[in-house]
Specification:
homodimer, seven-stranded mixed beta sheet, alpha/beta, 525 residues, 20% strand, 25 strands
């Protein structure tokens, strides 16, 4: 499939600028041949105007119409076939099996959002009937539901070229909520992005959606921030580094009209190994943990970067097993040269920090742009006294923090910033210790795991992928699961309205058959 | 009841600073005798340490325990008796009947939050059961609920010395959510604040709540911002001016860890009068509108400051009736001298704007610190071209915008910033026109009213008191009604946890009997 390299402005494709860039194949260490055009300020303005106009049409589409649109996007992505897989592999260095799985996740979440809006409960309707005879004052009929915020800007992520990019979770949840989406494509995988944009365009046109419901552009940092500052944009979704996330956050907060920013930025995802767990199950934990550390060459936001354990004999045995597994795990191609270089620098820096001991590194030779699995240890005391030890190393690396007591372990955990996840492994008689640790784990993270590993984030109604700052810029939100839609909505109440003027979700006869809070009681149909 | 003038640090009272201030009685135009002490930096630190420690205890209190605490606060407020009413009247210039009503609103909302948390559904539990046999990967059991954010800083409001101050909506909803509260008392009514703080202290101690679950301090702007910046604070509630609200917002966003700010700042609450409504019902609308404009001397955030109407004969008749009513409405004492002076300045400025005509002013002579009801007109064209016409005038003033067509009216409405409310009055055959205006009204405001007046905000489950910026700093939130609790919570998911370690809200047998989303279906009990 031939790529145009153009920006996607509504239903058109445009390349009026002169600055271009090319994608890089980290596995062959060379640029791919196609040129992609950075958007101009004028192109960005055209995109925003179309998004604004599209909003007034798109917001009125029924849940069923939006659901068909989301399903059509999923269908059109599948229709891209192997062209999508091969381009995505070339642009990410990720294996075809992983990309195929990620495509399934991407289409699966589009279909899950379609199902959720078809059900209709997501508007969280509430009805307080009138009390005309109440004294001293009558009460008016009051009905409340959530409505879409407006056009949403989505920044594609480097590490999920499909599931957190052009048609990923942010885009799917914003479109489901009734918001047009403008995607700033990640420069690592522009071809993948063009193919997905094509699929979304086909779906928009086939399902009768307004031009501007989706647009996509390529940008440098300056133009990306201009998009954040554009008055048409009413919310931003982002997955990436803390530095980039915070520059977007600051720009959004300094607008004349500040807007919500959902930036998922960084996490080291502490894993606590209680002594009983290692005694009963040390080898299996070592196996699972090694897999979780090195899975996807460690390029997951839920990668377990810090492991807390007691400094005792059971830990010794466990570490021997873990070392063996890290040594035998092959290096993997990293997503791009910047990420590869950053990983090399982070590992070098870690080695240079006083008190840090490198206890394992893969025995396989790392090829070009390949990240080598590595393990370090440090004492709990040192861990709390040097903030560099608590920063994310993006890649297949983990730091074992050796604690002298459970109390010291809790203190060390308390030194940490907000996290996406916190995990505890416990033996059969350690529920008491878990119970003691739980309040702190809940304070630190958005998802708490018991006897598991943090990589692998289910897309489902009960998922919470988010967490206290700096894991995300807004701990109240999730970027995975059906609740992700709530990020792009706000409530509106209707007072004393005639039934025929109310949105269907609030009408007396409940034509959508949704669950509503009536007189403070949840009622279905 | 003798007032100490001290800051309330946990269960103690402290006055280690040297700066003092006194309350002012606007009705007698003189200071009240008691001195109140501004807190020192050290006192603020003590408060924050206690709040932090209290959180670890308070978050574990059951819903039933917290509910008893909220009810005890309501009881202790009532037990203050007439001392509270008389002090509050002296500090606000508001009539005793209004203060008595506001006390009922304050205790009523404390009891409503008690009822809501006793019911327990507010944690929004979600359960995705395990699918151990799923291919290619099994699914782990995942359970999600909302937990409290941490200590909340509340800024008392000038215009609701009870309902939006020390034990007002922000405090009640934060305490209900499980967050300790630190109140920065408004300098207009420190004595009222001390009495309410006493009541809360008594309630805390009687119901076994930890010291630090509530504290209160007096501060200048610098110390107020220091409190916003204090790392213990995890969210801020504020009701007041846009300038003060934005300085708090900026400080919170520039923290190392940015935190949510719920600032309810300003609104002019447009009221649209369609021609049929005036033909059918002009006199009654004039009566209702005049009452809404002058109610509480116009010192409500929902005061109707802008009225859109067509420039025709029916409007002429309506305006004559409205003018008559404004002329016969007495001036009222304003809350404090600053608000009085600001109102005088705003009215003078309004008169000086080209195209603005003053069409009515009360015929009664205004006494000292009394705001005089006043009406202006301006053309829709001028309205859009001068932003000063769209700014809030805090007091009993309204601006009638005369439009040449419904289309021009819609354009003029489109010029406006975000609002707390938008109202439309329509005749029997004007539902079509309302339907055309509704999308824009929904885009501009948090609450939409039909044939009503925006003052009077019901405290109920379906209420939405909030709206797009600059009405508030966070359109996703409400500061009135049971949903106000959601501002101070965030979700946490538990993956693969043994039942006995889960919070009661998530346990398999549902011991709290709450409504939960199980396998994406809402299930009760």
């Amino acid at each position: 499939m031939k790529l145009s390299g153009k920006n996607n402005i509504g239903f058109s494709w445009s390349a009026s600028g002169s600055k271009t860039f090319r994608a890089f194949d980290p596995a062959v260490n060379d640029f791919l041949k196609e040129e992609f055009f950075l958007a101009t300020d004028e192109e960005l303005d055209q995109i925003m105007l179309l998004a604004q106009n599209a909003f007034s049409v798109y917001r009125k589409k029924t849940n069923a119409e939006r659901a068909l649109f989301l399903q059509a996007i999923a269908d059109e992505i599948m229709a891209l076939g192997d062209d999508l897989i091969s381009r995505c592999v070339a642009e990410s260095g990720l294996p075809a099996a992983r990309i195929t799985g990620e495509r399934a996740r991407t289409t699966g979440q589009l279909r899950l959002f379609a199902e959720t809006i078809r059900k209709g409960d997501y508007v969280q309707a509430r009805i307080d009937p009138a009390l005309p005879d109440r004294k001293p004052l009558p009460r008016y009929d009051l009905r409340r539901m959530s409505i879409p915020l407006g056009p949403v800007l989505v920044f594609g992520a480097s590490n999920f070229p499909l599931a957190f990019s052009t048609a990923g979770g942010d885009t799917a949840s914003a479109l489901a909520a009734g918001c047009p989406v403008v995607v700033k494509a990640h420069s690592s995988h522009p071809g993948t992005n063009e193919l997905i944009s094509l699929a979304i365009n086909r779906a928009s046109q086939k399902s009768g959606m307004p031009e501007g419901v989706f647009s996509m552009f390529y940008a440098d940092r300056v133009l990306g921030i201009k998009a954040v500052e554009h008055p048409v944009i009413k919310a931003v979704g982002f997955t990436g580094s803390r530095q980039a996330g915070m520059s977007i956050f600051k720009a959004a907060m300094n607008r004349n009209e500040p807007i919500p920013v959902y930036a998922e930025m960084s996490a080291v995802n502490p894993v606590i190994l209680l002594p009983g767990a290692l005694q009963e199950n040390g080898a299996a934990i070592a196996e699972g943990l090694a897999a979780s550390i090195t899975n996807g060459t460690g390029q997951f936001c839920t990668n377990p970067g810090i492991v807390f354990t007691l400094d005792n004999a059971a830990t010794e045995d466990f570490l021997q097993e873990l070392i063996k597994r890290i040594r035998s795990t092959s290096p993997g191609t990293m997503l791009n040269t910047n990420i590869y270089k950053a990983y090399q620098e982070s590992v070098s820096r870690m080695k240079s920090i006083p008190g840090v001991v490198q206890i394992a590194m893969t025995e396989k030779i790392a090829g070009i742009n390949e990240g080598a699995p590595v393990l370090f240890t440090v004492s709990a005391e040192r861990f709390c006294s040097d903030h560099r030890l608590r920063e994310e190393v993006f890649g297949p690396s983990s730091l074992i923090v050796l604690c002298q007591s459970l109390q010291q372990l809790e203190t060390a955990l308390g030194c940490m910033d907000g996290q996406l996840t916190a995990t505890v492994h416990a033996g059969k008689s350690e529920n008491g210790a878990v119970s003691d640790l739980l309040p702190l784990m809940m304070q630190k993270a958005g998802r708490i795991l018991f006897n598991g590993f943090p990589t692998g984030v289910e897309v489902s109604p009960a998922q919470q992928h988010g967490g206290p700052f700096p894991a995300t810029s807004d701990a109240r939100a999730t970027s995975v699961g059906t609740a992700a839609m709530e990020r792009f909505m706000r409530p509106v109440a209707f007072q004393h309205f005639p039934d025929e003027l109310l949105p269907d979700a609030l009408k007396a006869e409940n034509p959508l058959g949704i669950v509503r809070l009536v007189e403070n009681h949840l009622i279905k149909g």
